[in-house]
Every structure is written in C-alpha cells, then in structure tokens.
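User: If only I could read backbone structure tokens as easily as an amino acid sequence. Underneath my words sits a plain record pairing an amino acid chain with its backbone structure tokens. This is the protein in question:
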Amino acid sequence: MKIETEFNKGDIAWGMRDNCPVEVVVTEIKIEVKSNEPFIEYKTEWRGTQKIGFYIEGRLFPTKEALLKSL
C-alpha cells in the first residue's frame, strides 16, 4: 500500500479555527491505517504564533481562496 499526503512537513496551509480562516504551518503528520483505509492527521502551528491545531486530511487547503470556496 502506498500512502500519499496532501501536505508535507513545513508546508503552509489554510484551515478554519473558531469560524475564521487561519494560516498554519504543518509541523507533524500522523498516519494510521484502519480497515485498509488511511487516516491522516496534521499537527500545525498558526503562523507567527505558538498556537497548535490538528486537522484531518481534507480540512486543510493550499490557499485561502480554496478554503473559502469549500464553505
């Protein structure tokens, strides 16, 4: 089985936090395989702060525009 992630460690991405778009940096990637389905979770830090967040695959976007279009 080959697993590919949407983002790599160090990538900048956009996610939602408290109903607001936030720019984050991917700091860790956690992959679990359950029933032959990968579960991918990204640990992030908000850019310019030390706040940490967690996002599952599909909840982070490469640009703010892509995030807003998904709403």
